Amino acid sequence: MLGIFQSSTIPALEQSLSFAQKRHELLAGNLANMDTPGYRSRDLDVGEFQNALAESVHNSRVANAAGRVGPITRDDLFAGPRAATEQVVFHDGNDVSMENQIMNISKNQHLHSLAITTMRSQFALLRAAITERA
Amino acid sequence: MLSSLDISTSALVAQRTRLNAISGNIANISSLTDEEGNPSAYRARQVVFQTDDSLSTSGASGVKVSEIKTDDSEPLYRYQPNHPLAIEEGKWKGYVAYPNIDLTTEMVDALETTRAYEANVGVMEISKNLGRETLSILA
């Protein structure tokens, strides 16, 4: 029964969602510390995550073709926070730029919405297939 | 997801504390005596922020007020020899000590605090939206 979910994009979407939620937490923390002296902003690397996810999806496809189900694993697609790129440092040692953070938060929100919407339609498709109704 | 709400709340609390300190500073801009009525010009209070890692396990951190500093700069002296609180002896004889509070600085700080508060309320709104969207998978 593993196949019903593994053959769809649901596992990949799940990873994207989980990533977006983790990243949102960090970005919220950055904005919370907008006025904390010496604070350096933290972020997760989106590009790295996307690459790792793509690779994981690809490997899973290859495994499927060989007749063996290779589930997409968590495998630390996002290994902990890191200090974001060095930017303008204010006189108090803080480097949080409000505009950048807000932009990141809203991009991240859209990524999250995208994953949710796609996931919902996947489930709707599955339900349609199960109930034999479109 | 819920801990991002905690983080934003910690920022709201911290910024609110800062705004309280600023209000106090502006309110006491001409307070010449302390709580007991002894002549002593009011000293401005400054709130110091610090990251608070106890709110989340994923590396994100909230913010907390680590201390409230009292400004120890010299008061402003104005020559008012007939004032009941005029200094009676020493270098500043005949002067009255007024609080050394710069209204412009305080107002700019107040604006910054307000904007930071608003930004965090915005993030909370987004956090709630994310949570709601996630729950909508169930429906």
How would you summarize this macromolecular structure in one to three sentences?
The complex is a heterodimer of chains A (134) and B (139). With 134 residues, chain A is mainly alpha-helical.
Describe this structure in words.
The complex is a heterodimer of chains A (134) and B (139). Chain A is mainly α and 134 residues long. Helices cover 60% and strands 3% of the residues of chain A. Chain A has four helices and two strands, in the order ααβαβα. In chain A, strands 1-2 form a two-stranded antiparallel sheet. In chain A, helix 2 (10-32) packs antiparallel against helix 4 (98-131). Chain A starts with a helix and ends with a helix. Chain B has 139 residues and is an alpha+beta fold. Chain B has one domain (2-138). Chain B is built from two helices and four strands. Chain B has helices spanning 2-27, 103-135; strands at 45-52, 62-70, 76-79, 95-98. Chain B has a two-stranded antiparallel ribbon with strand order 1-2. Chain A binds chain B through residues 17, 20-22, 24-29, 31-37, 39, 42, 80-81, 98, 102, 105-106, 109, 112-113, 116, 119-120, 123, and chain B through 1, 3-4, 7-8, 10-11, 14-15, 18, 48-51, 56, 58-63, 112-113, 115-116, 119-120, 122-123, 126-127, 129-130, 133-134, 136-137.
Number of strands of chain B: 4
Beta strands of chain A, count? 2
Structural class of chain B, by secondary structure, is alpha+beta
Radius of gyration based on Cα positions of chain A:
19 Å
Tags for this model:
heterodimer, A: 134 residues, mainly alpha, two-stranded antiparallel sheet, 4 helices, 60% helix, B: 139 residues, alpha+beta, two-stranded antiparallel ribbon, 18% strand
What is the topology?
The complex is a heterodimer of chains A (134) and B (139).
Chain A: H1 3-6, H2 10-32, E1 42-43, H3 46-65, E2 82-83, H4 98-131
Antiparallel strand pairs in A: 1-2
Chain B: H1 2-27, E1 45-52, E2 62-70, E3 76-79, E4 95-98, H2 103-135
Antiparallel strand pairs in B: 1-2, 3-4
Helix pairs in contact in B: 1-2
